[in-house]
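[audit] Reproducing an earlier prediction to check determinism. Same input, same settings, fresh worker. If the tokens differ from the archived copy the diff job will pick it up downstream; this log only records the rerun itself.
[audit] input (250 residues):
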Amino acid sequence: MVGLTEREERIVGLLQAGGELSVASLSDTLGVSSVTIRSDLKALESKGIILRTRGAAMSAYHPLLMEKQGSNVEQKESIAKAAASLVHDGDRIMITNGTTSALIGRYLLGKRDIQIVSNSTLLFPFARVNPNISLTMVGGEFRPSAEALVGPAALRQLQEYHVAFTFTGTDGFTKEHGLTTHLMENAEIVRQMCRQAAKRVLVVDSSKYGRQGFVKIFGLSEIDILITDKGLPRDAIDDIGAMGIDVMIV
């Protein structure tokens, strides 16, 4: 995970696999003192990654989300940085839940008067440290596995806003089946957010290409811009570009 030391990454991995672990067990496993472990845990807690209990610690996030956050990290960071470059001072944007789309918040530093509407609680850390971001969270039911708010309340509230861009991820995308996800309620949120935007931007690493989830969100032609990494096959780039989609490779 970006921004963590090697030992902190190992601690996060151990907590993800083993649930709640004591300071003593982490100390024995990693071969460092309890004082060092407590210092590491304090740093991880300040970043919102773990929760500390009396003499122990546990992951602050659902295991499925932690797994997603730890995959293709460099590609996701590059994609998020490129997406943020599309945003100009004074823009109003929407960001859907997702580990790649949430990272866009990190790269909005230096931009002024940015209004974000989102259902992703992963944006909180970036909104806390950037006074130029105004974050509106839609209401709804909380889903820990996605760190997202979904449901009828969220859908109703989204209809009140109109934005320049909606940035969205997806569990999979293909030319034939478009954007897909594993959850119907997530598909509904993405559709509504994209209806409210002048431009729709898909931010997704190339490992998602060719995957097909259970629920179709909409056809690939509904996207205006695709931002992905160099792993996307050349023929796919050509085919997607032929649909009138602006393909950005980072």
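[audit] rerun output stored. Observation attached for the diff report: The mean pLDDT is 92.
[audit] end
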